[in-house]
Structures
1.
Amino acid sequence: MTMSVSRSAVMARAATLRPTRPSFAWTGEDSLRVACATALMLPLLLLAVFFGAALLDAWPRLNLTFLTSMPSRVAEDAGILPALAGTAWLLVLTALLAIPLGVGAAVYLEEYARPGRMTRLIEVNISNLAGVPSIIYGLLALEVFVRAAGMGRSVLAGACTLALLLLPVVITATREALRTVPTTLREAALGLGAERWQVMWRVVLPMSLPGIITGVVLSLSRAVGETAPLIMVGALGYVAFVPTSVQSAFTALPIQIFNWISRPQAAFHSNAAAAMVVLLLLMLALNALAMLVRRRVQRAAAH
Amino acid sequence: MGSSSPVEQVTGLLLLACACVSVLTTVGIVAVLLTESADFFAVVPLRRILLDTQWTPLFADQHFGIWPLVGGTLLTTACAMVVAIPLGVASAVYLAEFASPPVRRALKSLLELLASVPTVAFGYFALMMVTPTLQQLLPGVSSFNALGAGLMMGVMILPIIASLSEDAVFAVPSSLREGSYALGAGRVATIFRVVLPSAASGIAAAIILGISRAVGETMIVAIAAGQQPQLTADPRQAVETMTAYMAKVSMGDTPAGTLEYRTIFAVGLCLFTMTLALNLVAHHLRRRVLKGTMG
């Protein structure tokens, strides 16, 4: 099946086919257009208002002391240093685990696997895993990483959980990046006598690297906001130290936010709002990084 | 393959191992849920789970009726879908039928941004902003309630339904639209009588995937819907969902191996089964759509 005719061309043709009408008359079409546009914009505007309100509440708390202080029973003295450090640990460890596994699986499926029952099983499995609620991953991790593997309620157990959660996303993104490499290049390299692993290392991976990086960074920015699986693994709500090794107990930004929201005092709610602003800024920074990589690559490809 | 070098063979095996991690994850999830639940069902017969209407595993007087948790989940999900279905489908129609290409691109990246907002933030909004507003508008809204959490969950799910439905609307062949115009139908009639019915399977798949996401969502309901397992159809009241219960137990200090601890795996099994069933139906519908456009 091919959709060779571009969409705008179709629209333009459709427009000429439609009966003409005086341009000033308000028609049913206009009502539908406005209704649909409102449906799209309303939730976005609402969220913008909510963000604004949260930012106002958070503003007095947003300063350097907040970023560098330990949590405290006194809301005004409390900070997010352990949560920030925990999130940083999780981010790095998750990336170290999810990138090789995800890219490896994607390379296997795209370049090595032969069509067959095994390949089909893996593919169906990955698409099903993407639909499993994240809290279920937490249950798996609780039994396998925390208890059976003896990791305890450590930052490593948390990172393993998030890595499994990210795998379907990383695999899908990497496969898309691999598909952008023209087959002719692979054939040329093979024709020069290279083996498949050499073609991979020297040709396909370098060429698709920017796409892979974009996909991985985007998926990591999602991992930063994950809360439920970390709760199951046993991230703590109150941590007054910075993790020093992969075996340390830990907290993370979303866990800290959840902990503060759950308290009755309004002062802690302001802390939650401030931590949320920090979390969103962190995610935006990661997203911006991914966009930057994508844009640089597109520009490089254009020249 | 016979002539390939050792490096080639080892690389192939390593890559296969990476791919197998995802299969092992699925096997692990099913095995963990089944074994822990089996220990639970050995003590608590299915009769006590299905024929009881109280859920109090953490009290001295233990009841294991799962319906309050399932009911809480369905109630918050229903509230979410009231928001997400009409807004999501209307957004899809706007994006696919009305928006000019640059506007469409901008709006789609806004939706992407919306989809990446962490759920704990939606929970904050539900508790701190939606619920106080609801309390002013409606009588009898408690400070934790299914309605506020559900409405916010609807906003969270909106991008999924909108973007998947948009794919479905977009995939409707333009010849159908042109045929409709040629018969003298206007644009509104074409959208409602031709485009939407043709995209129905894809839109249904989008909605079902949205429901599956709502059922499995944890943080919004854990923050804003409350922790009272009760069987009610009144969204102004506090409820406890399956996910919120699991989060609550694992935050407390319930020791591993106890019956209370095993309840979270039994509830997890119930949740997993529900989302799996929904996902399978959605995939089936989407496959039908793909086949349909092939023919």
2.
Amino acid sequence: MCAAFSILITFGIIYEIGKEALLFFGSPEVNIREFLFGTRWQPQAADFGILPLLNATLTTTLFAMIVALPLGLGVAIYLSEYATKRIRNLLKPVLEILAGIPTVVYGFFALTFMTPLLRSIFGTDVVNIYNTASAGLVMGILILPLVASMCEDALSAVPYNLREASYGLGATKIETALKIVVPAAISGLASAVILALSRAVGETMIVAMAAGAGAKLTFNPFESAETMTGHIVRISGGDLSYDSIDYNSLFAIAITLFFLTLLLNIASQKIVKKFRRRYE
Amino acid sequence: MKAPQFSPYFENNLKGRQRLGGVWMNIIRAMTLMSVLFLAVLLLTVINQTFGYVIIETELSPEEIIGENRTFSDFNKLELIAILQENISKGRFSTLEREKSMRERSRDEVSDLIYLEVLQPKIVETWKLWDSITHADEIRQEHATNYPKAMLIFKSWLSSDFIRSAQSSKPTEAGVRTALLGSIWSILVTIVVAFPLGVGAATYLEEYAIDNRLNRIIQTNINNLAGVPSIIYGMLGLAIFVRALSALTSGQIFGDSLTTSDNGRTLLSAGLTLALLVLPIIIINTQEAIRAVPDSLRQASYGLGATKLQTIWHHVLPNALPGILTGTILAISRAIGETAPLVVVGAATYITFDPKGLFSKFTTLPIQIYQWSSRPQVEFQHLAGAAILVLLTLLLTLNRIAILLRNRFKN
Amino acid sequence: MTSIHDSDHAIFADHLSVYYDKFRAIKDISIEIFEKKVTAIIGPSGCGKSTMLRAFNRMNELLPATHTEGSVRFMGQDIYAADVDPVEVRKHIGMVFQKPNPFPKSIYENVAWGARINGFKTGLERLSMDEWVELCLTKAALWDEVKDKLHKSGLSLSGGQQQRLCIARAIAIQPQIILMDEPASALDPIATLKIEELMRDLVQEYTIIVVTHNMQQAARVSDFTAFMNMDEDRAGVLVEYDKTETIFTNPHDPRTEAYITGRFG
């Protein structure tokens, strides 16, 4: 009935994308090893190595994590251990709003604020107009509320009597928070991190607008580079003829992306389940 | 302070610990503050782009048309139409007449036409809000020295004209009407498709499905689908709706050649793709809402001899309605802001006509913002800022409605 | 260890009252607890026994909107004085809770952690942490049972063992006084007996104050007993405080007698 529909969707995704990807891999100019390990992506030259795109995805993700993880955890600790009701009622809506702003607005923000800021700090000859650092940092702001709310859930789930025991031993509030509560909540926190990774990997608009066009393998975050998602958007936004190898290559990237995020999502669920019974 | 404790085993380290604790507290407070600041900075950046001084030059000045010391308000509508006719080409006049006849247009509309078509304003320089406030004198100086014959006005790029105008390549005339209508239409399609399917699936999973392996797999499936990046849904939409089902989505199957595109890149495809995207959200939220309905309600209904279907339809679903509505509005908010999947599905890069139906080409508000942001000219950045404010207002309104509905139905 | 000034009471509460918001939970309690003795606090449930116990190491202020009147003197100082840090108070006055709450760490870490953060000194002619952990676990009558599995999680122990671990953890910071809030009520009878034996052993080194709803336990284990009751406005008051023998064989107050003969509570 209706529920079977949902199974249809998953299979639909795997089937369709798989179908197109298979077409891609089936064509004579391509082999899987080159796809996974090749370092150049130039369809015209029949180079289909995904590494430049993957590398850009990882770079932006890294920058996003640098922003979102410490700040998210910090906010979560503040919310769960210290905040009064008044502060909570102020802070939580702010986080919800941040989470609800469409990613295209964040892309705009990256272009009009973050990139000029980076350029003025590090110099316009160091920082390109399109660069992965800017996109990554703004992505971090996007993901921050997700990390904060998941970490707060994890911290709040730690039963109060653990904190009580710690205070009874003459520990300060911050010692209790950092040395007892956070380690006790580690499974939930790890799950939050992995979920954040998954979100960052799949993010499209911010990188499409601010990171740059054109696949390039570079470790310099101030240079422009294209991520997997950015590439898909750019190519499909242009003229695309079906059954061309370009078209099929998009699906190969898409299926890589799908499995990557799927793996991350499953990992995050498994971690929570495996370590859940730790408290009692 | 307490008298120091002489113990061979412990040293009194409390002061150091409290100091270190203070440092950590400040770090954590600073982090929290930063997060709030991010929101402020983001909004301010958008606002910064949306308002500011502009210098507008016109190809012709009013004096050249109607002589010195006269303004357009001196003339009545018929006279204005005459002025218009005199100064533009015949072909252009007939085009304007066809779009909307001079008789139907108001006096002000004709006046506007003269401004746009005859005087042909062009924006030569713009400033952001912060610059406009802090460097007002320098701006005026610049205006006086470089553009003495042009106008310096403080413009709000967000205006009612902005909302009512269609898309255009000229920054002075561009508006979001096309995109806004596209967004609204596509969301309607999404809701019409996703709401019944989603509520139905959730009802099945919560009320009918037995706890066996298959249903648990389905449940895990749905939870995973909620975490799939939106661009993948775009690819799916591309492969299925645009390509495989293109006969259906382009309307060719219905033989409606007027509103047909030559391919499946239509509003219908967009709406369906978004429906796939929001379906897991609706399902999960509805499930939670149904789960929250107390079992005693169901028991009471059965006790009165009602069937399962009657119980669900008359008791469970109405009781779960606030939660279901909240979930739906969440889904709508998400869908309205989505850009990537629709770009993949083939939102048009440049259309100037309003969407004429399910089978027409389309663009949406986020896509408009994306495109404007990508243009190098500064004016388009301002327009993007204005469009963002429209989008955010839309989302805020939705959010308010959600809260209102939830509170109303709770009682 | 240090000598306690102010004669040999360990704690001297003077007109102590504790409020949760506007509600007065315990009213005007004055009591002298004696050093190196086991003092039991008994009374019907809800009469404020735990509140009074927690007032002795300022644990009440962890809850929002509580405030305390009166004074509690320990080591010649009022622990509620403005310049006293409650964190320091708790190093000297430790606590064991009703439901065993070991940290989700190893057994070793459970004992070592408190000592470490309180500045446990190691080095030449001092005990190593390993030795200190062994010493504390031995005093808590747990060493033999866990010496081969110190790295295992504290949660892998049985209920009674966990509680003894919590006691070891508490004595690892070398308090003068150990407060116990119904330490055996969540345990089976055998584990309960072990805890009671432990109390008699520990009292040679520490002052012990135990809240219990089990009168027989109070009679078995304590040297002094305080009986608390609720008065008309539901505040807890101290009805009678005396040697345990006296309380249970020849109480002065009729309310005490009514309680211990089971007529209420």
